[in-house]
Write a structure and sequence with these properties.
Blueprint (H helix, E strand, L loop, with lengths): L3 H6 L1 H35 L9 H16 L2 H7 L1 H8 L5 H25 L3 H9 L4 H40 L1 H11 L4 H29 L3
């Protein structure tokens, strides 16, 4: 049963948890964009028939991406505790949880970028090569601009996945909405907090989807 006065009294805790969730998502999304975007481009341009074709590089990075993506996040989270401890000095809190979130998000986003680049007409790439464009020019002036709307949609999907992962991270000390839901909603059978966290996450994800789709449509040249 939802207790509105109690919900009002818990607003500071809910806001604190939501802020921690935003910190986790912000850090991990930034790292996944910085590393995942060039990694996705690399996976594409080293594929068979492309201008930087390299079977060895493609196999090595593709294999690493597939390994990380095949590990369930909750297991990856625990497995990376030693690395998290080494990097941030703790395994508890939103910053610590961001390490595992970043490791999970990088290969996910890289595959989305690679998929986006595969949608580009090969004729456009061949025409650019024919006029003597350098590989760097092809990447920056053709590949990224042509795929930018689908890349934006990929970023949107990555953020939504990070929302789900961050809630999971909260169950084992990451903080955020997930931690609040477990501590109050589950262990204390607090229906008000459980309903509140579910509604907040639904609204948050819908806003992310709406904003991401509007941005993608606004820059889509097709």
């Amino acid at each position: 049963m939802f207790d509105f006065p109690y919900f009002i009294s818990m607003l500071p805790d809910i806001w604190k948890a939501f802020t921690e969730t935003l910190i986790m998502i912000g850090i991990s999304l930034s790292i996944s964009l910085i590393i995942g975007l060039p990694l996705g481009v690399l996976l594409f341009v080293t594929d068979k028939g492309l201008f930087w074709e390299n079977r060895f590089v493609k196999s090595i990075f593709g294999f690493a991406v597939n390994i990380i993506r095949s590990i369930p996040f909750i297991i990856l989270l625990v497995a990376l505790f030693p690395l998290t401890k080494l990097l941030v000095g703790s395994t508890i809190g939103p910053v610590a949880a961001s390490v595992s979130l970043s490791v999970a998000a990088i290969p996910y986003f890289a595959r989305l970028v690679e998929s986006s680049l595969r949608d580009i007409d090969k004729g456009v790439i061949e025409a650019t090569i024919a006029v003597g464009a350098t590989p760097w020019m092809i990447i920056t002036d053709v590949l990224i601009p042509e795929a930018k709307s689908t890349i934006i949609r990929g970023i949107t999907l990555t953020v939504i996945s990070l929302v789900a992962y961050s809630a999971m991270a909260g169950t084992i000390g990451g903080g955020g909405i997930g931690d609040l839901a477990i501590r109050f909603g589950y262990y204390r059978y607090d229906d008000t907090i459980m309903i509140s966290t579910v509604v907040i996450l639904i609204i948050f994800v819908q806003l992310i989807q709406l904003i991401g789709e509007q941005i993608a449509k606004s820059i889509d040249k097709r």
